[in-house]
Amino acid sequence: MSTFLDLGLQEPINRALTDLGYEKPTVIQEKAIPQIISSTEDLKAFAQTGTGKTAAFSLPILELIDQTNVNTQAIILSPTRELAVQIGKNIEDFSKYLPNLKVATVYGGANIEEQIRKLKKGVQIVVGTPGRTVDLIKRRALKLGNVQWLVLDEADEMLNMGFKEELDQVLEATPDSKQTLLFSATFPREVEAIAKNYMTNPVEITSGQKNQGSDNVSHEYYLVTERTRYPALKRVADLNPDIYGIVFCRTRRETQEVANNLIKDGYNADALHGDLSQAQRDSVMEKFRQKNIQILVATDVAARGLDVNNLTHVINHKLPDQIENYNHRSGRTGRAGNKGISIALVTKKEQGKLRPIERIIKKEFIHTPVPSGKEICQNQLFHLIDKVHNTEVNTDQIEGFLPGIYEKLEDLTREELIQKFVSLEFNTFLSYYENAADLNNLSSKDNSRGRSSSENMTRFFINLGRKDRLNPAKLIGLINDQNIGDKIEIGAIDILDTFSFFEIDKNFEKETLDAFATNDPDFNGRSVNIEITKTDRGNGGGRKPRRSGGGNFSGRGRRSGDRNDKPTDSKKSFGRRRSENSTSRRSDNKPAAGFGRKRRRD
Ligand code: AMP
C-alpha cells in the first residue's frame, strides 16, 4: 500500500494531508496522482462522488504548479456553487503549507466585483461554476491563456444542468497545450462527446468498475403505494433512531412538501432545493453538517457538493428520472470507508425502474418489508436501553438529590422501576404504533378511494347510510359543500345501511368538525351528525393507528400536526421538559446531546 509521499507528493502537502487525517491514498488517488504528475496526457476518470476524487486531481496540480508565478495555471469547473466552494476549501486545506499558493472560487449569486478584485491580485488556481466563469472571461477579469490544467469535475452533471455552451466557451478560452482532466461518475453520450471533441487520446482510469456503485452501500427497496409512501418513509426514520440521511425527491415542490410533513410530524428535518435563497441553502447545509438536522430532504441538484461522509441512509422518496442519478444519490452514503444503505420507495408501477439501475450499479436491490410497528418499538426500546447503559453518571452533580430520590422510589422493586421507566418513555410510541397498519399489504385499494386507511387520515362516523340514499358520490358532494378547504383529501368511504364512515386528511380534522357544526347541513331532510371514530370499523379494513402523542421520543418530537393528541399530564410534562432542554441548547448553537431529538427551527 503506497503513501502520499510514494505517489510523488512533496512533504508540505503530505503534512497537510496528515493534518486532515488522510492516512493513505484512496484507489482513485493512487491511480490519478502519479499519472498526472508524470504525464501531460489528458485523463478521463470514472469516479463516483465520495471516492476522494477532489484530492485525486488537486494534489498533483499543487505538486506541479509554479507558486512563484501568479498567472492562473489551473481552472477547475464544477456544476454547483456548493461543490465549487467545497473544492476551493479542500485546496486551501491541502495547500496550507504552500505559502505562495493562491486559490479563488467564483460562482454566481455572489458579488462579482469582489471576485474580480481577488482575481486581479493573481491566483494560480481558479475553481468556478461554468456560468460565472464565462462571465468573468467575457469581462476580461479571468485570463486562461496560461492555463496548464483544466479540470471538469462531475462533467455529467454539468451537462445535465445545461452548461454545454458554457463548457464550450471555457474550453475555447484555454490553450491547446493544456492537460484536460475529466472526472465523471457516469459517461453518457454527451460526456463522451466532450471527451472526444476536447481531449486527445485520454488515459482512462477508474476508481472501480465504470458506473458501478460503492461496495459499501447496500440497496433496498420498499414496495409502497402513493398513499403509503410517506408513512413508509416515517417508518424508516422511526426504525433508525440515529438516522442521518438524505431523502431525495424529484421536484422542488415534492421536496418542500415532504420536508414540511416531516417537520410537522416532529422529525428533525429540513428542505434543500433551488427555490431557497443561497443564504437559506447555506444555513440548512451547515445545520445538516453539524447534525443539527437529522434528515435532509433534497433535490438532486441541491444536494450536489454536500460533503458529508457519515450518512447512514439515502432514501429515494421517488426514483430519479435519469437512472444515472441514482448512482449520485446512493453515492452520498457509504463514503470514506463507512457502510450505508440506499432505500428506494417504489410503487408496483415504478418497480420496473429498478432493473436498469441494477445493471448500472451491478448489484441487486433487496426487497425489504416496510417495518412493522412492533419492530420499530423494539428498535427504539433497545436504543434507549443502550443509551441508558452508555450514560455517564456524574455523581458529584446529582449526589445531593439522591437520598430524596431513593426515598421516593423505595416502595418500588427493581422490576417495577424498570417497567415504569420503560412505560414513561414508550407509552406514546407504543400507542402510536399499537394499531399501525401493515404497510406491506398492498391489496387494499390503496390508491383509490377504497377501503384503506392511512396514518395521515382521520376516520369519521356519519349518521347517514344507504337507507338515506347516501352513496360515495353524494357523500363527497356533502363534504365539499361544507367548504372545508380547497385541498382537502377524502380517503376511504364505507357506506353502511344506517350510517357510514369516511376519512379526511388528518390536518383538516378540526376544520371538518367545525364546518359541519357551523353549517348544520341536512341531507334529504335529515339532520347530519359527524364524529371522529375512536375505534376501528370491525370489517377488516385498514386501521388508523391511534395517537396519543405529546411525549417526545428519540428521533421525533411532539406531533404538533396531530390535533387529536391529548397527552396525559405525565406525558405532557415530560415532553415539555425535553423541548425546553433542546431550545436552551439551541441558543448556544451546539448540537443537541440527544441527537435524535427534534429541535425547533428558526
Ligand atoms: P470526494 O470524493 O473528493 O468528495 O471526497 C470524499 C470525502 O473523502 C471527503 O470528505 C474527503 O475529505 C475524504 N477523503 C478524500 N481522500 C481521502 C483519504 N485519502 N483519506 C481519508 N479521507 C479522504
TrEMBL record:
Motif Q motif, which positions?
A: 2-30
Any one GO molecular function term: nucleic acid binding
Which segments show compositional bias classed as Gly residues?
Answer: 538-554
Among SMART domains, the record links this protein to:
DEXDc (SM00487), HELICc (SM00490)
Quote the CDD domains the UniProt record gives: DEADc (cd00268), RRM_DbpA (cd12252), SF2_C_DEAD (cd18787)
Q: Which residues form the DEAD-box RNA helicase Q domain?
A: 2-30
Helicase ATP-binding domain residues: 34-205
Annotated region (Disordered) at 532-602
Pfam families per record: DbpA (PF03880), DEAD (PF00270), Helicase_C (PF00271)
Name under which the protein is recorded: ATP-dependent RNA helicase DeaD
According to its UniProt entry, this protein's organism is Tenacibaculum lutimaris
